[in-house]
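Following up on my earlier thread - several people asked me to post the actual chain instead of describing it. Fair enough. Here it is, all 456 residues.
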Amino acid sequence: MTDERAEQADEASLRADAQDAARIYQAAHDLHITYRQDDSPAPGAGQLSLRHLLACFADAPLPVAVLCPEAVAAARMPELPAERVAAELRALPHAAGEIPCVRPDPAALAESARELADDQHTRLATYAAALLDHALLRSPQGAALDLLAPHVMALLWRPRGDPARSATAARRVRDAYEKGGRYAQALPFAVRIAESATGSGTADSLALGRLRTDCGDVGEAVAVLRPLLAQAERAATGRGLSLAGRTGPSFTEIFRENAAGPFTSGLSPADCHALEDVADVQHALAGALYGLRRYAECERLLLSASGLRWRVLGALHPAYMLAQLHRARALGRQRLWLEALSLVHNVLSFWDRAELDPDRPWDDALLRLALAEVMTGAVRSLREEGASRSRGVGMFPAPVVRFLDRTLGSNPRPDKVTWQEAHTRAEEAVRACDGAFGPAHPHSRAARALLERPPP
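Reply from S.P.:
Thanks for posting it. Predicted structure:
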């Protein structure tokens, strides 16, 4: 009886173990089915095709050159070899126009998008950004830019893909539109880049502030640039750099070294970069304040920016010279023509030695435009509004400063500036701007407006 009871107990124990094992197996089986249903790609998503890639672009004509073999190879898409892309591309409907484009049926693209799993969406969006970036390197201007822009914007708003790659392509579109003077088209890209997590801080916010100014939204530009200036100043002071008082080189440095500068012996490359950032934001903010007619504040910022650039870049650098001329323009708006023309004289003394890059003709064009603005403004103001104002400097009141300028100063007197000289500067500005930017650019139109003004 004892042996029978032991056998029954063993049998019951085995049945209990088997039931437990069955329950564990069933639970694991159900769990496997559940996750398999969630993670497995949708039907038809196993083989990626060109139509799946096209679903990542906008519903707009896409230039065929975006999918050329060189671009496909550069994008490194192992799921979509160049030969298969070329074969499928030939079978798609093409849109007629100056630039060959492809535009598949939107319903078919929507169906293709639904067939993709999340990880496939991410990979294909990254490939699409790489293809657009490659195309923008080859065709940064003209009609091709307008065709590529909506696709870049679509990728900027997509939650999937590599956001850094999409932002790189968007910066190319923004910069190309800005260089072409199409500020309204560049602004939405600047706004979206600055809002995204990939915005690179100072550079992208600075581009947004400048575009706000160029579009006439000067109040919004100030709202963008003031916090940016505070951020740049904190970064500079955090490195032990002082921005108080005189920002240019000391008198000892000027007499000890070449007066043209730069004066960077006591600065590291990171220090120079921090000071350049401050000067760039100051110059941009001054441009917005000039649009608000706050000329005194504008001039103070440009005084600081030109000092920093003299110290870090030197007086032969076009950025320093442009800051000086824009400061002269702001002084002219306050009818302080003695000071304004002294700055012009300072810039002209370095003009023949200026470090102008032949590959950057717009630097020379911007300098000539700013010089023409100051010269024409000086002649007209002095003829129509009377003599120049003066202001005190340090312990010297305005009458003493005016007397010293007239008797001891070597700068040209305002009453000696002629309309013919200003007209010649305007002609030079028109030629330089037309060559650098094209006749339709806002800078070229501004130069032409100076030339077409009647003499006072």
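The two ends are 132 Å apart (CA to CA). That should answer part of your original question.
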